[in-house]
């Protein structure tokens, strides 16, 4: 397809990855974000793990596994990679079906180590109150991500390959003229583009509307995420327990969230102190040393993803030149999205990994014509 000018809207984990992979394939890339710092939106406030745990269906599991492998490969290539921490995930459940789920992971080719509740503490070297019975699983390939560092590093690499990165400037409108998409920025500039990639996460419907595409995001998913200051390093692995998920965040810090606490969040409210305490109490029941920690900050994150909760990645047939790259597991998927989108833009290659998540599944209808937005 030759060299093409591509505008990537969004400089979070997915946008930065896409800009990097396009630039290394020789594409003229402009990456634009309204924020002053790369990755300062949803990328910065999410739980930040590279994981395939509890990812369904099989196609979604597979692309998350591919994302983990891409993180590992990029970390080797761009060493030192401060963003990548291959800690492994340790998981257990109070559901009777958990053993069957571990069997399914093995069937799907996921590296997995199993321990009894009696041997897990010794084998994993954790200060963790493991359950009295049932299996404990270790997924050794997984890890946690400093997502802002990742986005910033990938944009540094993209710039070194010739990409233009514009932060602190919003996209004001998008029009079609002379067979190209024209991206009009709030500072008065406009960028003619053959391809536009919408990697704006929770704001993706706004960009979709500008190009005349259908909306595709679901309602906000609200999650209470707390950062805790602790003595030493009481946690080496990501923990997925029934009541709580906890991960390391560097020396003296951990991050935690809970599906069960999230269900208690009142609508449109911030971080209620009682629920923050509930989160901390649940964490202390799993890792008792966390009971003496100090909450550094807690925030209710309201993120939006495609309405079927699966990624939307690839071209939208109704709008030539327009692509989407939006997912709830964006930190895990960012490097594989970037590589596969670059392959499609440059070579027209459609990977089987992203084919099940085509934006076209949400319909081809246009909200308005591009002429109405010009």
Count of individual helical segments:
11
Query: Per the principal axes of the C-alpha atoms, what is the gross shape?
Result: globular
- Report the strand count: 20
Q: Helix share of residues?
A: 25-40%
Strand order of the largest sheet: 6-7-5-15-16-17-14-18
Question: Stretches where pLDDT falls below 50 for ≥5 residues?
Answer: 365-374
Roughly how many Å is the radius of gyration?
Answer: 21 Å
Oligomer: single chain
* Average predicted confidence as pLDDT: 94
How many angstroms separate the termini? 27 Å
Please state roughly what percent of the residues sit in beta strands, choosing from under 5%, 5-15%, 15-25%, 25-35%, 35-45% or over 45%. Answer: 25-35%
Structural class: alpha+beta
Biggest sheet details:
8 strands, mixed
Written description of the protein model:
This protein has helices at 13-24, 42-45, 58-77, 98-107, 117-124, 147-160, 204-211, 259-262, 273-286, 330-347, 370-373, and strands spanning 5-9, 28-33, 49-50, 84-85, 89-91, 113-116, 135-139, 143-145, 164-167, 171-177, 180-185, 190-193, 195-198, 221-229, 238-240, 245-248, 253-257, 294-303, 312-315, 322-326. The protein has 11 helices and 20 strands. The chain is of the alpha+beta class and 374 residues long. The strands form 4 sheets. Strands 6-7-5-15-16-17-14-18 form an 8-stranded mixed beta sheet, with helices on both faces. The protein has a 6-stranded mixed beta sheet with strand order 9-2-1-13-20-19, sandwiched between helices. β11 and β12 (190-193) form a beta hairpin. The longest helix is centred in the first third of the chain and has 20 residues, at 58-77. The radius of gyration is 21 Å and the shape is globular. The protein is 31% helix and 25% strand.
């Amino acid at each position: 397809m030759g060299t093409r000018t591509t505008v990537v809207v969004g400089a979070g984990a997915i946008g930065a990855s896409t800009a990097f992979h396009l630039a290394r394939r020789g594409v003229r890339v402009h990456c634009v974000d309204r924020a002053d710092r790369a990755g300062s939106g949803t990328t910065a406030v999410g739980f930040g793990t590279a994981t395939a745990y509890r990812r369904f269906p099989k196609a979604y599991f597979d692309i998350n596994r591919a994302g983990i492998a891409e993180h590992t490969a990029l970390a080797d290539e761009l060493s030192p990679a401060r963003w990548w921490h291959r800690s492994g995930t340790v998981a257990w459940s109070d559901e009777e079906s958990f053993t069957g789920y571990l069997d399914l992971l093995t069937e799907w080719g996921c590296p997995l180590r199993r321990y009894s509740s009696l041997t897990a503490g010794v084998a994993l070297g954790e200060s963790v109150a493991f359950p009295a019975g049932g299996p404990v699983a270790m997924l050794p390939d997984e890890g946690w991500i400093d997502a802002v560092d990742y986005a910033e590093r990938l944009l540094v690499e993209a710039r070194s390959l010739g990409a233009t990165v514009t932060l602190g400037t919003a996209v004001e409108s998008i029009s079609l003229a002379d067979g190209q998409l024209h991206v009009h920025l709030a500072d008065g500039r406009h960028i003619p583009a053959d391809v536009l990639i919408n990697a704006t996460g929770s704001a993706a419907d706004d960009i979709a509307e500008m190009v005349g595409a259908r909306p595709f995001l679901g309602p906000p998913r609200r999650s209470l995420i707390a950062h805790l200051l602790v003595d030493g390093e009481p946690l080496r692995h990501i923990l997925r327990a029934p009541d709580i998920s906890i991960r390391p965040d560097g020396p003296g810090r951990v991050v935690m969230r809970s599906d069960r606490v999230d269900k208690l969040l009142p609508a449109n409210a911030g971080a209620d102190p009682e629920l923050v305490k509930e989160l901390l109490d649940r964490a202390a029941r799993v890792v008792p040393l966390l009971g003496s920690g100090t909450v550094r900050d807690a925030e209710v994150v309201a993120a939006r993803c495609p309405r079927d909760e699966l990624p939307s990645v690839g071209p939208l047939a109704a709008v030539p030149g327009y692509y989407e790259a939006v997912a709830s597991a964006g930190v895990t998927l960012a490097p594989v999205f970037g590589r596969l989108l670059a392959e499609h833009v440059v070579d027209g290659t459609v990977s089987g990994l992203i084919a099940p998540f085509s934006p076209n599944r949400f319909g081809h209808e246009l909200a308005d014509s591009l002429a109405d937005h010009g």
